[in-house]
Amino acid sequence: MKWNNLKPDIAAIDLNSRISKHISAIDKINLISSTQNCPLIIIPQHIKKKIILHLSTKKVELGGLLIGSVISTNDLTQGIVAIEIKEAVASNNFESSAVSLTMSSDIWQDANKISTDTTFVVGWYHSHPDLGAFFSGTDRKTQKDFFHSAYSLGLVIDPIRHEEKWFLGANSNEVKSNKIRSNFKYGLAVV
C-alpha cells in the first residue's frame, strides 16, 4: 500500500478569519472558553422551521441530513468552537414506520450537490412521532457508524409533543439547550 499525503476534501473555517471583524478579542476568548466541553450549535430559524415542517408531514419516522460548516481554532477534530447549520436535506426515498426509518443512499448524492470544501454534511435529523425526543439504541449505532466525527450532530424531534434533543459525536453526547443558538446576524453568538 502506498501512502499519499493528500489535502482533505473538507476543512474547518478558521475562527479568526470567520468573525474577526465582527467581535473583539475578549469576546473571542469568552466564546472559546464557553465552548470547551461542547461547541455552540447555530441553526437559522428558517432551517429549523423547514426541518419541523418536513417531520410533521407524516406520523411515521422521517429524516434527512444537516449541511453546515465547522468553525474552529484548529481543525475538524480539535478546537471546534461552533457548528453552523446552513441547510437541511430531506430524505425523499425511504422506508419507515412509527418506530423506524431507513433512508436511501440517494440522500448523500443530494447533499453532495450543495457541499463545498467548507460546507458539508455535519449530521442528521429524524423524528420520533409521539414517542418523545431521545436517542434510541439504533440511533446511537447509526451515529457511531455514520456520524462519528467530533463535529457530527444528531437531532431528534418529536413533532407531536414539540420536543427536541441534540447529540454530538460518536458517543452521542447530549448537547445542553444553552449550546444551541439561532437568528444571529453574523452566524456566531457570544455566550
Annotation keywords:
nine-stranded mixed sheet; two-stranded antiparallel ribbon; alpha/beta; Cytidine Deaminase, domain 2; single chain; globular; 23% helix; 191 residues; 5 helices
Describe the structure.
The chain is built from five helices and eleven strands. The protein has helices at about 15-20, 25-35, 45-55, 105-115, 135-145; strands at about 15, 40, 65-70, 80-90, 95, 100-105, 120-125, 155-160, 165-170, 175, 180. The radius of gyration is 17 Å and the shape is globular. The termini are far apart.
Give helix and strand order, one letter per element, not per position.
EHHEHEEEEHEHEEEE
Which residues form runs of ≥5 with pLDDT under 50?
184-191
User: Helix content range of the residues, please?
Assistant: 10-25%
Provide the β-strand percentage band. 25-35%
What's the average pLDDT?
Answer: 83
Instruction: Label the overall shape.
Output: globular
- Span of the ends, CA to CA: 47 Å
CATH class of the domain at 44-175: Alpha Beta
CATH fold-type name of the domain at 44-175: Cytidine Deaminase, domain 2
Structural class: alpha/beta
The tally of helices reads 5
> What characterizes the major β-sheet?
9 strands, mixed
CATH superfamily of the domain at 44-175: Cytidine Deaminase, domain 2
Q: Measured on Cα atoms, how large is the radius of gyration?
A: 17 Å
**Number of DSSP strand runs:** 11
- The CATH architecture designation of the domain at 44-175 is 3-Layer(aba) Sandwich
